[in-house]
Write a structure and sequence with these properties.
Number of helices: 1
């Protein structure tokens, strides 16, 4: 799924590919992927953690609270 994320390679090696580029990955590699990169493809023998921000769409209660807190 496309989106901002941080990838951390825990073990193994391989490639990260996106439309227009590729990057070799090895154990210890850390990559920030911008939303604009679109869909990403991992290949090889990798164990990876993908860290992504939580859904940032506030519900109506959060929006009201933020407005009254000002």
């Amino acid at each position: 799924e496309p989106g901002f994320a941080v990838l951390v390679v825990l073990d193994g090696g391989g490639m990260l590919r996106w439309d227009g580029g590729e990057l070799p990955l090895t154990r210890g590699s850390t990559v920030v992927t911008p939303y604009g990169a679109g869909a990403l493809e991992l290949s090889g023998t990798l164990r990876v953690i993908r860290c992504a921000p939580p859904n940032a769409v506030p519900d109506s209660t959060t929006a009201e609270t933020a407005e009254t807190a000002e």
